[in-house]
Amino acid sequence: MPKTKTNLEERIAEASYVCGRCGSCRNVCPVYQEIKWESSSPRGKITLAKDVFLKHKHNKMTEFYTQRLLECTLCGKCEEICAAGIHTRGLWLDLRESLRETGRLHPNFRHLGEQIATTHNISATANEYRLDWTDDLDDFEVPQSKDGSEVAYFVGCVSSFYPQLADIPQSIVKILEQAPVKYTVLGGEEWCCGFPLISAGMSGEAQELARHNIEKVRALRVKTLITGCASCFHTWSQEYPLLLGKSKQDLGFEVLHVTEYFARLLQEKRLMPAGLSETVTYHDPCDLGRNSGVYEDPRVILQAIPGLDYVEMFHNRELADCCGGGGNLQMVDSGLSQAIAGRRVRAAVETGASILVSACQQCVQTLRDAARKEKLALEVMDVTELLWQVLDHETGGERNE
Amino acid sequence: MEVFLKEIFGSRMTTDPFELEQYTKDIAYIPPILVRLLAKPWPRAVVQAEESREIACLMQWAFQKRIPVTVRGGGSSAYFNSVPVQEGIVLDMNHMQGVGAVHMAGKAEEPAVWVQAGTTWYDADERLRRQGYTLRSYPTSAPAATVGGWISLGGFGIGSIRYGPLREQILGVRAVTAGGEIAEVDNPGLKSEAEASAGGGGLCFDDFFGMEGTRAVITEAHLTVRPFPEKEAHRVLAFRDVRPTGRMIQELGQVSSVFNVHFSSPTFVAALHKKGYASELPQERYCLAVDLAGRQTEVEEALRTIRREVQVLGGEVLATEAGEAEWISRFKALRLKQTWPSLQAAELLLPVEHFAAFEEALTKLAKQKHTVVVTYAHLVSPETVLLMVLFPSDELNTLRYLGDLSFISRIYALGKLYGGKPYIIGLWNTSYLSDIYTSKELKRRWERKQRLDRPNILNPGKAYKAPFFLSRSVFRLGMGFLGMLCPFVRAGRESDA
Ligand SMILES: Cc1cc2nc3c(=O)[nH]c(=O)nc-3n(C[C@H](O)[C@H](O)[C@H](O)COP(=O)(O)OP(=O)(O)OC[C@H]3O[C@@H](n4cnc5c(N)ncnc54)[C@H](O)[C@@H]3O)c2cc1C
Ligand code: SF4
Ligand code: SF4
Question: Would you say residue B110 lies in a domain?
Fold first, then answer.
């Protein structure tokens, strides 16, 4: 359903009226944990939303309040714990939409919107360079929009355009080759999934992207769409049906995160991991775990690796802490995002792990930067990178040191 | 003032109205017209303490200048307990978080731990679990409520039936007095003679419990804890009538492994069902969620005892999943607000033997008033239940909301008939002080307060004396008047039901 101004305001008013101001959401919020002022807590923000939208005290929508609304990673932990069962993450998105409706769009969000409208991706690079990350792959050609494929791999903007993360899509296609799987990528026909726009409160702009992407994948007549990006996965599986007013089944193909797909391949014994003697912990990406419900598959992959000593971080699964990289927070306050990431990597080190694994490029990048800044002896990698390194392929299955 | 506070607290002090406004509220909505009449809730500054020394400096200065200081934990209370009534400074304790190492202490050589006052009960439990221990009791607001906050209020919640009131689980408290002295006070009942020492700052152990931050600022508490139990079990018992439910609650008070008993009225369950919650609970039944913990054999024996008793009383034990689901949602009572976003509430301690009779009388009263009431309760000792009575109101309609306030006083009056009394005082319940304490007790409380805080700067306006408009006679008049508003707003009530 399109988010019109009236139904947006009604929804915000309704949700804020339900809030009991109990404060259960306060202490779990990664932003409140850093800022520590009540106005930065979910409860504080909802209290003001109630004044503005339910009680029509519009003068309370100040610049500072607007800033507070954007100081949020959309991690959804407040929703998990909310004593009144409020869908707070949806409320934060509605509030961002309302900021945009009333001309309060953050300048960096506006710039992002213009960028995506121009290049169809989050970078300034033209979209036809989407497959630059395949340049180093000498052993095989990555098939592009290939007819008769079973699986389409939706790479995502971060994997496609950030060379420092190219290892992730490369590992994914190498694994697909090894299984082997009849797969294809969309190349320049893949557009940004729209997640950054939805997070910015610009879901209207995301609709065109959604329609385009769905049409292109449908044209391939694949059975399955996989993606390695937790946010792309969330958008495809949860937001596209909402944006287009359709059900998941209407897409005409199943949508899986690569960890779900690779766990399946492992179960079918199409992938055989060799050993790894390291202690490894896993960070649940908010968009894969709490916001999409995938918790077990990444763990299944890690636990299938012989010799790997798997340890959980204390806050895991539904209660996992955010890496700080979500909700476009880096565009609003990069220092805050880094501080949140710092907490998470320190928690990883507390487990005794030498490797912190995640299943999202954005999380990997944010946590990797944090581990470096904190000078921690902690390697941060994507689960697909680790899986490729331990697979029993032509290198003998041992991890390349 | 600003210069002084900045010097101590640096960026952890604010006078920005945007921030201050957040500290003018707690969980209950009070119409601005009443707030204006009875309180000055806007603090002049909020400060966030990180250590006792900062609090000591603040208190010495405030004591000398006679500036009120209101201590705030999670702000999850409902009677303006942590909202200033006479402006001044709000002391936000949420930076003081941390849990020490579990060690053996006290007369009984029990596992115990020092916990900082700004730690939430939920976090404290989580950190204890990492050490293989868990809390003995905690409030159902555990994710929000701080250690200092619950010590300062009722101290009854989950686990109380097994381990008694919070007072009995604390070996000692570290605090800062109103005059700014740092003190440590032991629980004389729980300390070994060798450990027991005279309290510092003239404080004694009872100056903390239920004192609403009026006698000292708690900075740390020495909590006794329990090892993680060998076995936990969760069940729901359902009854058609309230009388056998009341009997069952009484019986459960005698079963040794019982850790928690939670009662839900059929109206409470129906309101949750409306929004798709608690589907595991049957309609039109009085439900008791019973949680057990202990050694495997004890828990199993207790389950057998419970089954027998339920059969005798004509109830049923629901499938295990129902018990698990209720346990998982033990912090989520506010989901009721999905059905009625605006609620008013009365919270009572009631003798368990009169629980069923009170419920029946309350249902009758609600019918007369053309409203629906929902109740839920915890058994907090073999003799007492802590009962929450809620009914829908409408804060967007001030007239109706004010009219509904009079219904709260009717509920308390009814409770009194059955030996009940309000649980918490704060500002709004000061009218009921004489229902809670004898006049001798009131006098002693006030004398003690004056001894420790002569200028009356720690959380003034709460817990001891009613302000003019809440004094007994004025309050009665006011409630009578508000009650007269009720017929005008009845239509709204009937549509809620
Ligand atoms: C959903 C829900 C469930 C609840 N369940 C329960 C329950 O099971 N049992 C129960 O008793 N209550 C319950 N409450 C009420 C409330 O949460 C508790 O009373 C809680 O203990 C308040 O703690 P707080 O940290 O929020 O304190 P606040 O509300 O911030 O303060 C409460 C009082 O304590 C004082 N105070 C706070 N910290 C300190 C300190 N460090 N030193 C001195 N004084 C201090 C304040 O001045 C104030 O008077 C519930 C509330 C909600 C919203
Ligand atoms: S979504 Fe995460 S960051 Fe945003 S308010 Fe909730 S807990 Fe805080
Ligand atoms: S936990 Fe839910 S009800 Fe409680 S303050 Fe937060 S948003 Fe409001």
Answer: no
Residues 6+ positions from A10 with CB-CB distance below 8 Å: none
Are the C-beta atoms of A336 and A70 separated by less than 8 Å? no
- The stretch B376-386 carries a mean pLDDT of 98
Number of inter-chain CB pairs under 8 A, A vs B = 88
Cβ(A355)–Cβ(A390) below 8 Å: no
Sheet with B316-317, strands from edge to edge, namely B316-317, B231-239, B286-294, B258-264, B374-381, B384-392, B343-351, B421-422
Distance between CA atoms of residues B190 and B112, nearest Å: 12
Measured distance CA(B274)–CA(B361) in Å, rounded: 25
Domain harbouring B50, CATH code: 3.30.43.10
3-state secondary structure at position B280: coil
Tokens 């007013």 identify what position?
A245
Determine the structural domain holding residue B83 and report its residue range: 2-92
pLDDT at residue B486 in the model: 64
pTM of the model: 0.95
Whether the Cβ atoms of residue A339 and residue A29 lie closer than 8 Å to each other:
no
Residue in B with minimal Cα distance to A83: B332
Query: pLDDT digit string (tens) for A333-347?
Result: 999 999 999 999 999
Shortest Cα distance from B95 to chain A (angstroms)?
8
Taking only the tens place, the pLDDT of each residue in B47-104 is 999 999 999 999 999 999 999 999 999 999 999 999 999 999 999 999 999 999 999 9
Joined together, the tokens standing for residue B350 give 């009631």
> How high is the ipTM of this complex?
0.95
Domain membership flag for residue B139:
no
The two beta strands, A279-282 and A355-358, are parallel
pLDDT surpasses 80 at A119 = yes
Q: How many CB atoms lie within 10 A of CB B1?
A: 14
Is the Cβ pair B18, A65 closer than 8 Å?
A: yes
Residues with CB under 6 A from ligand 1: A 22, 83; B 27, 70-77, 81-82, 93, 117, 139-141, 144-146, 148-150, 152-154, 156-157, 212-213, 217-218, 333-334, 459
Residue ranges and CATH numbers for the domains of chain A are 5-104 (no CATH), 108-265 (3.40.50), 272-395 (3.40.50.1860)
Q: What percent of chain A has pLDDT over 70?
A: 97
Mutate-to-test residue for ligand 2 from A37, A86, A88, A329, highest number of ligand atoms within 8 A of CB: A88
| Sequence-ordered list of residues with C-beta below 8 angstroms from that of B94, at least 6 positions apart, any chain | A27, A36, B48, B73, B74, B118, B146
A149, A220 in Cβ contact below 8 A? yes
Q: How confident is the model at residue B489 (pLDDT cuts 50, 70, 90)?
A: low
**Rounded-to-integer distance, Cα B177 and Cα B175, Å:** 6
Tokens of A204: 């209207």
In sequence order, the β-bridge partners of residue A224 are A151, A254
Q: Of B422, B330, B411, which Cα lies nearest the Cα of B375?
A: B411
Residue of B nearest to A47 (CA): B22
Residue B144 within a domain:
no
- Chain A nearest C-alpha distance from B302 (Å): 31
| String of DSSP letters for B369-413 | TT---EEEEEEEETTEEEEEEEEE--TTSHHHHHHHHHHHHHHHH
- Is the pLDDT at B322 greater than 80? The verdict is yes
Mean pLDDT of chain A: 95
DSSP strand E in B231-369: where? 231-239, 258-264, 286-294, 316-317, 343-351
- For residue B78, tell me if it sits in a domain: yes
Helix (H) or strand (E) holding A308: none
In degrees rounded to 5, what are phi and psi of residue A35?
-80, -40
Minimum Cα–Cα distance from A85: chain B residue:
B335
Which tokens go with B398? 């001030």
Angle at B338 between CA A87 and CA B489, to 5 degrees: 145
Structural domain count, chain B = 1
A110, A70 contact by CB (below 8 A): no
